[in-house]
Automatic annotation (TrEMBL):
<keyword id="KW-0378">Hydrolase</keyword>
<feature type="binding site">
    <location>
        <position position="292"/>
    </location>
    <ligand>
        <name>Mg(2+)</name>
    </ligand>
</feature>
<keyword id="KW-0460">Magnesium</keyword>
<dbReference type="GO" id="GO:0016787">
    <property type="term" value="F:hydrolase activity"/>
</dbReference>
<comment type="similarity">
    <text>Belongs to the ADP-ribosylglycohydrolase family.</text>
</comment>
<feature type="binding site">
    <location>
        <position position="55"/>
    </location>
    <ligand>
        <name>Mg(2+)</name>
    </ligand>
</feature>
<feature type="binding site">
    <location>
        <position position="56"/>
    </location>
    <ligand>
        <name>Mg(2+)</name>
    </ligand>
</feature>
<feature type="binding site">
    <location>
        <position position="57"/>
    </location>
    <ligand>
        <name>Mg(2+)</name>
    </ligand>
</feature>
<keyword id="KW-0479">Metal-binding</keyword>
<dbReference type="InterPro" id="IPR005502">
    <property type="entry name" value="Ribosyl_crysJ1"/>
</dbReference>
<protein>
    <submittedName>
        <fullName>ADP-ribosylglycohydrolase</fullName>
    </submittedName>
</protein>
<dbReference type="InterPro" id="IPR050792">
    <property type="entry name" value="ADP-ribosylglycohydrolase"/>
</dbReference>
<dbReference type="Pfam" id="PF03747">
    <property type="entry name" value="ADP_ribosyl_GH"/>
</dbReference>
<dbReference type="InterPro" id="IPR036705">
    <property type="entry name" value="Ribosyl_crysJ1_sf"/>
</dbReference>
<feature type="binding site">
    <location>
        <position position="290"/>
    </location>
    <ligand>
        <name>Mg(2+)</name>
    </ligand>
</feature>
<feature type="binding site">
    <location>
        <position position="293"/>
    </location>
    <ligand>
        <name>Mg(2+)</name>
    </ligand>
</feature>
<dbReference type="GO" id="GO:0046872">
    <property type="term" value="F:metal ion binding"/>
</dbReference>
Amino acid sequence: MNLSSRFRGSLLAGAIGDALGAATEFDSIDRIREIAGPDGITDFIEAYGGIGKITDDTQMTMFTLEALLRARINGGDVVHALQMAYQRWLHTQGVPWTRARGPKNTSEEPDGWLITVAELFSRRAPGLTCFGELEAYGRTGIQPSIDRPVNNSKGCGGVMRAAPIALWSDDPAEVFELGADSAALTHGHPSGYLSSGAFAVIVQQLLAGVPLRYAVDVSIKELVKHRMHEEQLTALEAALKLDGPPTPERVESLGQGNIGETALSMSVYVALNTGDPNTALLAAVNHSGDSDSTGSICGNLVGAMYGEEALQSSWLNRLELREAIERLADDALAEFGVGTKSDDRRVSRYPAD
Ligand SMILES: [Mg+2]
């Protein structure tokens, strides 16, 4: 399986998992069974006025990848590129550009290709921490960091958008750093950003064809270099110890998935204990926790493990934003290694910040 299949698979399966869980974020498993039938979620159900609709997890993941492309093509500080990409996402959520762009930015309109994708302009229960901290950047222009945290949040809003950072480097340490730095733009608690670093490394290893169990070990080697890593380490170890095919009860025994460390550990457990991506995607959303985020994160894992071709076509065919996700993935693959770099228009699609 080549990198293209794994990377496209990672993004597409993440979006499918997000869409499968979109209608039942935080519903109890009993409520999910009332809504979807005795087997719980087995297919897309209506959410946000349609079928196959993605949520903020996928939207923000797309802006993460856009930032990496802009920084790779034009140079410059990639963490600042991520900040600006998230400000453009904030604008898609209804915040006027003049309030979203930040005081140092004087552009009259947001630029680049991604912001022209009309379907992105839709609010899908955006996380309050992400929204609030990006609004604060819009007012102050102060870029938060691990050393200058703006809050003590360990919500899963950082880790849920981090999968594309896997492409940034072949070096696990560099990928971990950028994963953590990207999440620290909105989440100040170590479990809010170390989860993101660990997740990006796991995806990086999966894209290289490393089996998940070993990919997790590589991420743990990086994780333990950072202060206050214990909580995330404990959560990952619990996922590795938990045996047997995923049931709602087993998945929930690891947590609710609304915070970084359990969103990652629940997703890792499901991916480790299933034999195909489609079974994993359903197991990742059928529990009482943050179904769209664990669906999205687990999808990013299993898509990279099994590749695009293994994904159920009835889901791919009805997935919102499929074309935009594929185009973004192909542009990224061209810039980050395989394929030919498209043409000079790539600079107008992905301008400098
Ligand atoms: Mg969501």
